[in-house]
Design a protein that fits this description.
By secondary structure, this protein is of the alpha/beta class. It contains 8 helices and 6 strands; from the N terminus they run E-H-E-E-E-H-E-H-E-H-H-H-H-H.
Length: about 190
C-alpha cells in the first residue's frame, strides 16, 4: 500500500472553509478523527490541530483561526461513525476545549486490545496489517507553532488517512470472534468519559 497521500490534506483556516467542510461532513456516514495538542510545550495545553478524514479527502483544521463550535453537531450525530485511534485523550481535549458530545465511536486501539493483539499502537497495527510504515518523528512536535511545515501537515493527515481500512479490518475480526458487542460497549463507555 502506498504511504504517500494521493492528494495533500486540505488546510482549513477560514470560517467559510469550515462551513463548507461541515456541509461535506454532514453527508458522510463515517469519519476518521485525531487531534494534536501542545501538552509538552504549554502549561495549559490546548487542541492545536484537528484532523478529519473522509474516504475521499483529508482535512486539517486550525483551531487558532476558526471557531470549531459548528463541528459540535457532527460529533454528536449518532448517524455518523467517528473512528479514532486511542480516543480517550482526544475526547478529553475536545470536551475540555469545545464541550463536544461524541456519539457513535469506533476506537481502533480498543478494538485491537479486545482482540488480544500484542501491539496496539497505530504504527504497529498499520505495519502488521497493511505493511505501512509511519514516520512518527512529529509525534512529540510543538503543534502550537505556526506555520506548520508541509511535513508536519502530511504527518497529521496520515494519522487519520488509514483509519478506515484499519477499522474495517479490526471490525471484521471482532465479528468473526463474536466480540463486537463487547467492543461496542467499550466504545460507548469511552465516549462518555470525562
Amino acid at each position: 500500500m502506498d504511504l504517500a497521500l494521493v492528494e495533500p490534506p486540505v488546510w482549513i483556516d477560514t470560517t467559510a472553509g469550515l462551513a463548507e467542510l461541515v456541509n461535506i461532513l454532514d453527508k458522510e456516514k463515517c469519519l476518521a478523527i485525531d487531534t494534536e495538542s501542545n501538552s509538552l510545550f504549554a502549561y495549559q495545553e490546548k487542541v492545536c490541530l484537528l484532523q478529519i478524514s473522509t474516504t475521499k479527502a483529508d482535512y486539517l483544521i486550525d483551531p487558532f483561526k476558526v471557531d470549531l463550535a459548528s463541528l459540535g453537531r457532527i460529533f454528536a450525530n449518532s448517524e455518523i461513525e467517528k473512528i479514532f485511534h486511542a480516543a480517550e485523550y482526544d475526547l478529553i481535549c475536545l470536551k475540555r476545549d469545545y464541550h463536544f458530545e461524541v456519539n457513535h465511536l469506533f476506537d481502533t486501539m480498543i478494538a485491537a486490545r479486545i482482540l488480544g493483539l500484542p501491539e496496539v499502537g497505530l504504527g504497529a497495527l498499520l505495519q502488521t496489517r497493511f505493511g505501512i510504515v509511519l514516520d512518527k518523528r512529529y509525534q512529540r512536535a510543538d503543534w502550537g507553532i505556526r506555520p506548520l511545515s508541509e511535513a508536519m501537515k502530511a504527518y497529521a493527515a496520515l494519522d487519520t488517512h488509514y483509519l478506515f481500512n484499519l477499522r474495517d479490518n479490526l471490525a471484521l475480526e471482532l465479528h468473526e470472534k463474536d466480540l463486537i458487542q463487547l467492543a461496542d460497549e467499550d466504545f460507548r463507555f469511552i465516549s462518555k468519559a470525562e
